[in-house]
Design brief:
Elements lengths: L4 E5 L5 H17 L10 H4 L4 E8 L4 E9 L4 E8 L8 H15 L4 E7 L3 H9 L3 E2 L13 E7 L7
Length: 160
Amino acid sequence: MTEPVSIKAEDPRTADGARLIGALDAHLSALYDPQFNYFLDLDQLAQPDITFLVARNAAGEALGCVALREYADFAEIKRMYVDEAARGLGIAKALLKTAHDLALSKGFETVRLETGDRQTAAIGLYEQAGYRPCGCYGDYQPDSPHNHFFEIRLSPAATV
């Protein structure tokens, strides 16, 4: 990473949260038909079972985001996005590590996620971090040709 980045929990309904989620929605809508997107809107991201994290540079500019959703026996990565101009700087890796640390601090050892087959950079990031394919879970369509499901078992020494 070329410049320092801070990652903190924030209200997703801020202007920066809305901008990042809006850009993510536009990106995913261009890749997939609506039935293959599982968007959480800003109000859903502000619910008590979700922590919305924002990465900012030293100037305070919002560069990316990720949400951690809590279930009874696992946590889920949702709404991971890095602004196009900030890609390649290690921000996605830092967001994922922060989400993993948060999951561990909340007592979760398993983290799952869903991503699409056309998001090859995201799949590469998750596989490099130690995610492995898993079965469909939650409200996702089990027979989707685009949606892929991954999980990781965390330990306090896990690194991204």
